[in-house]
Specification:
Elements lengths: L6 E3 L17 H11 L8 E3 L5 H5 L4 H9 L4 H7 L5 H24 L1 E5 L19 H11 L6 E5 L6 H7 L5 E8 L12 E5 L5 H18 L3 E5 L17 H17 L4 E4 L9 H16 L4
Parallel strand pairs: 1-2, 1-3, 3-8, 4-5, 4-7, 5-6, 7-8
């Protein structure tokens, strides 16, 4: 095991939610414990995600929106669209989730692989949040790394079951970024702005169909010749997921991850991986699928 690999986690900052809230906030800690129990990583390899700076957020998000988030001036409608009630802890939790993705990407550029047990906040747009996403971690990370000239080209591979509308609206059209999303055609959100490559899947899509589409899409990602891949590996395509509407098995999801990680390894492209969505009930199936993603990364010899 490569002891230089560290996994960032954001749940050192609490996420205060009302009792009965539908978002499964405990899945992050449970995934960390699962990875230790499976001996994928040692406890010393987990690091708390650093908080992103306000200046880095304002580089891609509307400054007035950022100030409203920081000062607690979001309207009740804006909070409802996000899905979380405002609190100072929420602000810092979202800053950690964004900062952890940037830290994971920086590690990937050094070691070939980085990851965070959070992130994938692809529904956040420039001037509003939505779908449990306040800041867009991939847009912020890409902007910082491009400004620092650490990379020339970045590819986003977004395999969450929900279309990455925030990614599309914030990064599509930037020549240095290639945005790919494969998602449920009839799932959230209702408005799906165009990415550089979109594959919209029918309800009940199964392993074989899904993997065939992914194999073809990876060729398009490869032709872009990225210096870094940002991978949103949401596990909500799982058949057990209550928000997914697809029919991928655990084996199919793991094979999905292996295709992505093997591609990155074979072409020596650094890859940073974040969790994305997962909403099984009970949450154990989601935690198992998240753990399998890291097992796929290990099997692909990324660490």
């Amino acid at each position: 095991m490569n002891q230089d690999i560290y996994i960032y986690f954001a749940d050192h900052v609490p996420l205060p939610l009302p009792e009965g809230h539908r978002f499964p906030a405990d899945k992050y800690e449970k995934t960390r414990l699962s990875l230790m129990e499976a001996k994928v990583f040692q406890e010393s390899q987990f690091l708390p995600s650093p908080l992103i700076s306000k200046d880095d957020l304002k580089s891609v998000h509307d400054p007035d929106y950022i100030e409203a988030v920081f000062q607690g001036d979001l309207s009740s409608l804006a909070q409802k669209k996000i899905g979380f009630p405002w609190s100072e802890d929420l602000v810092n939790r979202c800053r950690a989730s964004t900062g952890g993705t940037l830290a994971a990407a920086r590690q990937a550029l050094k070691t070939g692989y980085g990851a965070q047990l959070a992130g994938g906040t692809h529904h956040a747009h420039r001037d509003f949040g939505a779908g449990y996403c306040v800041f867009n971690d991939f847009a912020v990370t890409a902007d910082v790394l491009l400004r620092e000239q650490l990379v020339r080209r970045i590819a986003v591979i977004d395999l969450d079951v929900h279309h990455g509308d925030g990614n599309a609206s914030m990064m599509t059209g930037i020549p240095e970024i290639f945005v790919f999303s494969m998602h449920g055609a009839k799932n959230y959100p209702s408005k799906k702005p165009a990415s550089d490559l979109d594959i919209a899947l029918d309800d009940d899509t199964s392993d074989q169909q899904y993997l065939r589409h992914l194999e073809e899409a990876i060729l398009a990602v490869g032709s872009f010749q990225p210096d870094l891949i940002l991978y949103q590996g949401g596990v909500d395509p799982l058949i057990d997921d209550r928000l997914g509407r697809l029919k991928l098995s655990f084996a199919g999801l793991k094979r999905r991850d292996e295709l992505v990680f093997t591609f990155a390894k074979e072409f020596s492209i650094p890859i940073a991986h974040v969790l994305g969505g997962g909403y099984s009930r009970p949450i154990g199936a989601t935690v198992t699928a998240y753990t399998n993603t890291f097992l796929a990364a290990k099997a692909s010899h990324l660490f």
